[in-house]
Amino acid sequence: MIDVSAPSLERNDSYTPGLPREYVAKKYGIAVDDVAKLGSAENPFGASPRAAEAVGREMANLSIYPEWTARLMREAIAEKYGFDADCVACGAGETEVISFIIRSFAAAGEAVLMHEPCFPIYHIFAENEGRKPVYVPMGEDFDPVFDRYIETLHATGARIAFITNPHSPSGRLMPEAEIRRVCEAAPATLVVIDEAYIHYTQTAGSIELTRHYDNLVVLRTFSKAYGLAGLRLGFAIAANKRLISPLINIKPTWNLGQMQIAGGVAAIGDDEHVDRTVEAIVEMREYITERLAGLNRFRMVPGSRSNFFLLEIADDKLDSSSLFQALLERGVITKDGAISFRGLGRRYLRIDVSLKKHMDRLADALRDIEAAE
């Protein structure tokens, strides 16, 4: 009998994506356009127009192998942030880059640090690669408690320390001073700041900090503000090129195709699309906060600076799975915290901020559920 090299690969502990609109529309008899898809943090305005045009033009080159390091895309990203192209490594989504980092900087059995709850890809990839995920519990309303984080980092000798900024699933923005503390506390640990949602905070993020810390790398994605979730593009950037070269060396030779590279090159300069998206999300984040303020059985966890927030269930008669289902029946797709985030428990849903019509559908559905009991 042939056995897999790692028993974790046989377990069914994989990432749980959001449901598609078409499934909900068919099952519950709701028009597809009326379904509020609020479980995948996608861009409600769609793809960057510049990227879409560039992808279309690239159809003529489908018979040609791309440059194996996605050099054109690395150069475009580097120019955007004032770095050298050798400071950038690209992947098929930020998730692929995370796998490169875990394989490159932590050996089998070594510790990989993360908050609990966190983006599940960190611990899924770490476990599948035979690394040891170490969790740091968060405080009230998902306070990151960096004193505890740094203590755990020292106690475990973690080789990699992941910090999601803003945090998923809470949307909390981590202060720059605390990120600096982590970098300074363990110079032999690779600190990875995952900034998948940073545009929605209306801050510059931590890319410039990499010029000050040789152990810091920043991750970004094209899936959110650029609207290219279906194209699969992400990157790592660091001033210290020694953090980047292993990622390029370990990746599959051609992990990005011609259309991905063309889309990324065009999207990185599409500030108009990003700005429009961010402005709308920030406005709707304030709007839905006001609309949900009067609820008694549910509480919007304060402090989100992202394009999603956590909804806490205050009624013991409900849990995250039953509320998820009740919203689904009313045409609202969310993310069940009990399934999607290890350690979050059964009292939370993560819900996207989107267009006004979808925010109204969510608010009306919650009020309907509240009035039904």
Do you know the CATH architecture of the largest domain? 3-Layer(aba) Sandwich
- Shape, principal axes of CA atoms: globular
- The helix-strand sequence is HEHHEHEHEHEHEEEHHHEEHEEHEH
> In order across it, which strands form the biggest sheet?
2-8-7-6-5-3-4
Low-confidence stretches: none
Radius of gyration: 21 Å
The tally of structural domains comes to: 2
Tell me, rounded to a whole number, the average pLDDT: 95
CATH superfamily of the largest domain: Type I PLP-dependent aspartate aminotransferase-like (Major domain)
How much of the sequence lies in strands comes to 15-25%
What does this structure look like?
The structure is a single chain. This protein is an alpha/beta fold and 373 residues long. The chain folds into two domains: 18-46 and 272-372, Aspartate Aminotransferase, domain 1 (Alpha-Beta Complex); 49-269, Type I PLP-dependent aspartate aminotransferase-like (Major domain) (Aspartate Aminotransferase, domain 2). Helix content is 37%, strand content 15%. The strands form three sheets. It has a seven-stranded mixed sheet with strand order 2-8-7-6-5-3-4, sandwiched between helices. It has a four-stranded antiparallel sheet with strand order 9-10-13-12. A hairpin with a 7-residue loop joins strand 9 (298-300) and strand 10 (308-313). The longest helix has 21 residues, at 271-291. It starts with 20 loop residues before the first helix and ends with a helix.
Summarize this structure briefly.
The protein is an alpha/beta fold and 373 residues long. Helices cover 37% and strands 15% of the residues.
